[in-house]
Write a structure and sequence with these properties.
CATH class of chain A: Alpha Beta
Distance between the termini of chain A: 11 Å
Radius of gyration of chain A: 20 Å
Structural class of chain B: mainly alpha
CATH topology of chain A: Amidase signature (AS) enzymes
Helix content of chain B: 55-70%
Mean pLDDT of chain A: 96
Largest interface: A-B, 36 and 26 residues
Order of helices and strands of chain A: HHEHEHEEEHEHEEHEHEHHHHEHHEEH
Oligomer: heterodimer
Shape of chain B: flat
Low-confidence stretches of chain A: 392-396
Helix content of chain A: 25-40%
Number of domains of chain B: 1
Low-confidence stretches of chain B: none
């Protein structure tokens, strides 16, 4: 049974369809792993045993009647605890909301439920998805979430448990959210695949809002292919989320001669292992794609996205701050981090939104000849759980082009593991694509995974 | 000019301290002041890019009317 926990969705689904594995058996297996290993990682907020087993029995009965809803039929999953689901509180990772009940399923949960997937756990996250400007892993009432590769190091965030649980084989896939880095960071630090979809691709109804024009929901999985399978289920228009697109999404692997852009200077100031593993990844990718070096013109990319995020977060959490609830948060800097945003001028927010249009056009123009932009997912190795992680980036400032343009322009990106350092901690590479072209970047990542074995390595302590 | 900028920072910080100062210690007030400086530095970066009158915010407002069923 122990080979199950690192199986891909396709592998599990095949076993379920063949009848060699039942949804109840599989759900019990993962519930047990969540209970045993979750606390070691600070990765879980609540396990939904009752809900999960009820659904698993239903899925099993349907199989008995010859009904298979989708490839996710009978597959357990977890969601970041900013996504509402009946059966457990929705805490947003914040102590003041630890027991708060939101008594409906978010659209993303409803869609997964309809597809036959089985919700097993609400997963740990950075309080308010990092919306108060946290600077350390210990910024959640559930404690600092750990990467299963080394329990002294951080899982990344803010979708911390979503990355950690998948990497440790506690759940086959999870849903996280990203405003700026929150899916890709845990994918990087935990050595799993993480997909940030195009803005508007997945409904956020029922999910905490941090920044209405930047927030996205997306999957974290064992493989790039799994990300495509999950995205197909959760994507689509939702009248309850006006940002959602009417464009249909069907996951399809693309086979072609890919053309990939390499951002000039994108490993400047990077940690040594990040640079080394990135160079090795480039050599692999050159076997199946043409790589060309490009440069983005000078433009205040980070300032644009930062001001939009800060202004929208100030509005989203104004009542929270007014009521003094921020002082009940865990990280000291989160207690006061929201105040300065309350004095962002409306004219400056609007200027950022006006410049966003220019940024979108710059990105579109640069990317028109390419299927993806390749970059390290993070220039830094995972930081120790007791260390303030922004300290190192402050001493070696560099522009986060893929983060600021990618999120500011609403572009999709996928991160997959690209190697390890001597301490066994993972590194990641990301492929950022054109809007609504997730299939290209997923296909490139799949091709990379066909040429490498990094995604087949798993944390020794959780084998 | 430097004094003018300092004044803006002080005024914005005081807006926060007036409303919420009783909850904040001196170290926290200093951190908030630093964040305001950073935020205004970001605004300065935005102002270096020329924009025309017709450059609209990228968020498009769409008038809504419920469809008749």
């Amino acid at each position: 049974m122990n080979i199950l926990h690192f199986s891909s969705i396709s592998e599990l689904s095949t076993k379920i369809k063949e009848g060699s594995l039942s949804p109840v058996e599989l759900t019990n297996f993962f519930l047990e792993r969540l209970k045993i290993h979750g606390p070691k990682l600070n990765a879980i907020v609540n396990i939904l045993t009752e809900r999960a087993l009820k659904k698993a029995k239903k899925m099993e009965t349907e199989i008995g009647k010859g009904k298979i809803r989708s490839i996710l039929h009978g597959i357990p999953y977890g969601v970041k605890d900013l996504i509402a689901a009946v059966g457990a509180p929705t805490s947003w990772g914040a102590a003041p909301y630890k027991n708060r009940i939101i008594d409906y399923d978010a659209t993303v949960v409803s869609r997964l439920e309809s597809s036959g997937a089985i919700l097993c756990a609400k997963l740990a996250m950075i309080e308010l998805a990092g919306g108060m400007g946290y600077r350390q892993p210990n910024a959640s009432f559930s404690g600092p979430c750990k990467t299963p590769w080394n329990l002294n190091y951080w899982s990344g965030g803010s979708s911390s448990g979503s990355g950690s649980c998948v990497a440790a084989g506690l759940i086959p896939f999870s849903i996280g959210s990203e405003t700026w880095g929150s899916i890709l960071s845990p994918a990087n630090n935990c050595g799993v695949a993480g997909l940030r979809p195009t803005y508007g691709r997945v409904s956020r109804h029922g999910a905490m809002a941090l920044s209405w024009t930047l927030d996205k929901l997306g999957p974290l999985c064992q493989t790039a292919e799994d990300c495509g399978l999950v995205l197909e289920t959760i994507a689509g228009f939702d009248s309850k989320d006006p940002s959602t697109t009417h464009k249909k999404y069907k996951f399809m692997e693309i086979h072609k001669d890919f053309k990939i852009a390499l951002l000039k200077g994108n490993i400047e100031n990077a940690d040594e292992t990040v640079s080394k593993n990135f160079d090795n990844a480039v050599k692999v990718i050159e076997k199946f794609a043409i790589i060309e070096e490009i440069n983005f013109p000078e433009f205040p990319y980070e300032a644009v996205t930062r001001i939009i995020l800060n202004a929208e977060a100030a509005s989203a959490f104004e009542d929270f701050i007014d009521n003094g609830l921020s002082h009940e948060l865990t990280a000291p800097e989160d207690k006061y981090g929201g105040y300065s945003r309350l004095v962002v001028f409306a004219k400056d927010y609007l200027r950022a939104l006006r410049l966003r249009g220019k940024m979108v056009k710059i990105a579109e123009e640069i990317m028109q000849d390419y299927d993806a932009i390749l970059a390290p997912t993070s220039k830094r190795m995972p930081s120790p759980i007791q260390q303030e992680f922004r300290r190192s980036t402050r001493t070696t400032p560099s522009i986060d082009i893929t983060g600021s343009v990618g999120n500011g322009a609403g572009l999709p990106s996928i991160s997959v593991p690209s190697g390890f350092n001597e301490e066994g901690l993972p590194t990641g590479i990301q492929f950022m694509g054109k809007a609504y072209d997730e299939n290209s970047i997923i296909s490139i990542a799949m091709e990379y995974q066909k040429h490498t074995e990094w995604h087949k390595k798993h944390p020794p302590e959780f084998q | 000019m430097i004094n003018h900028k300092e004044k803006i920072v002080d005024n914005l910080a005081n807006l926060i301290y007036d409303s919420y100062g009783s909850r904040l210690n001196e170290k926290e007030k200093e951190e908030i002041r630093k964040s305001i400086v950073q935020s205004l530095e970001n605004v300065d970066k935005l102002k270096k890019v020329k924009i025309e009158n017709g450059d609209e915010p990228y968020n498009i407002f769409i008038p809504y009317r419920k469809e008749k069923t």
